Task: structure prediction
Amino acid sequence: MLNSAPSHFQLGPGVWALTPEPVHHDLLHRYTVRARELLARLQACIPDDDRLLVIVQAAVETRALYFVAALNEPTTADLDECFDQFVIRSASGIHDLNGARNEN
Result:
């Protein structure tokens, strides 16, 4: 028998939160476009499509966890900033390792 109850993870003693839902394809596409535009606007090197997709998936999950963990309910701008910073730092870290970082 399948368990239809939502899965949870523990944030701390006695504090439980819902596990983030799988990211819907349309949402993932929208955030991938956002990440690509953000990196282009910063004149940063844009990772290949597969690597960018991994970064975006992790950034969306991080954004969801930030919402759950924040003491006060974050605004949409706060959540977008969390996403943007994750993408920027992840993409720049990749390019640092490859020695191809754009210094502009």
In short: The beta strands are 8-12, 15-18. The chain has one domain: 21-97.
